[in-house]
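Following up on my earlier thread - several people asked me to post the actual chain instead of describing it. Fair enough. Here it is, all 294 residues.
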Amino acid sequence: MELRQLRYFVAVAEESHFTRAADRLHIAQSGLSASIRALERELGADLFRRNTRQVRLTPEGRALLVEARRALAASDAARDAVAAVQGLLRGSLSIGSLQCLHAVDLPTVLAGFVAAHPGLDIRLRHGGSGELVEQVREGRLDLALVLRPAREPDDLVVAPLASEPLVLACAPGHPLAACGKVGLEALRGERFVDFPPDWGTRTRADEALAAAGVDRHVALEVTDVHSLLALVGNGLGVALVPRSFSAKTARVRFLELADPAPMWETVAVSGAVSGAPGGGAAAALLDEIYRVAR
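Reply from S.P.:
Thanks for posting it. Predicted structure:
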């Protein structure tokens, strides 16, 4: 079994189509098909179910996909480690980030990092904390900047970045807007605006309200910060958000929560093989994040 075969296999699995995978890999489709057939013969199992429109992974293919991604990530990490000793960073670095990451000025960090390492191909994607952590586990991301998981994963490396309290966001005309500090129990019966269930802010708000015995109703679900704040500002619901969101608009009232206020903690999550902290491009980027934050 060769790494090249595994890269071809992962491309077909992700594209669900041989022609698209061949285009992505810049190889002839006939060569790609022959490589996959050779891999199936070696493993003694069909990895895909094929039809005229698309291909689907078999149970054996799904099992191989997880390990193939890990093997490719380990190979990339080994190459990066050697390059790091030589003072060079090459190859690619895939980063995942929450959409609104106040703790890290990611554009500034990446601008300096790319300038310092022009041979490195940087890839960035946004998503929810749960989704991004799982992509690190699968080897699809090298580093994810997310909310600290409720349960610390044994198979991943978690490095702290920053923490801040959650606050209540409400419309200026809301009955609670004139309060100083608000207890979570005062939010019983309120209509909430929030993000999807696997997003970090939603997870932390759910945990805090459940601990306070508040059964809440999320009426409006959005996928970007500005829409959430616009809905709140127009009186369509309240939200629990990191305090840094208060810098984004003057049309929403932000109120401190009564002590002990639930905290929002941002962390960097990496795979054990890609090693942040511990070497390679992911570790170098994390060092740059800490340097800019100082």
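The first strand starts at residue 48 and ends at 50. That should answer part of your original question.
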